[in-house]
Amino acid sequence: MKVGQPADLPKVSTPSAAASGAAAPAKKEAAATAASTASSSGVAVTVSTSVRSLEQANRGEAADVNTEKVNAVRQAIADGTYVVNAEVIADKLLSNAQEMLNRTQN
Q: Which position has the higher pLDDT, 5 or 83?
């Protein structure tokens, strides 16, 4: 087995070749062209009115967050008393995976 670059891939130039000065102007020109192309090739995006109405409807809804529980967990982490129950996490991961599998089979 030969170690090295395959023939079909372009070879990587070494810093000494770039330091010769011959390749430096070409690299600067290519970088300038790429930068101008990237800035001028923007794509116009439009948002439909139905998406806008959904966004406005979601702004009025409050998130279902139990702030008391969040504060209790935050305090336990700060105190260093928060304990992660790996068994419960594993059980929930397995049940979520099973639920996803059931959805794909139906």
A: 83
pTM score of the predicted model: 0.33
Examine residue 21 and state whether it is found in any structural domain, yes or no: no
- DSSP label at 23? S
More confident residue, 38 or 74: 74
Number of separate domains in the chain:
1
Q: Which stretches of 1-106 are assigned E, i.e. beta strand?
A: none
Kindly state the tokens that stand for 65: 């967050």
Residue 93 lies in a domain: yes
DSSP 8-class letter at 62: P
Contact 76, 82 (CB under 8 A): yes
List the domain range (segments joined by +) for residue 88.
Answer: 65-105
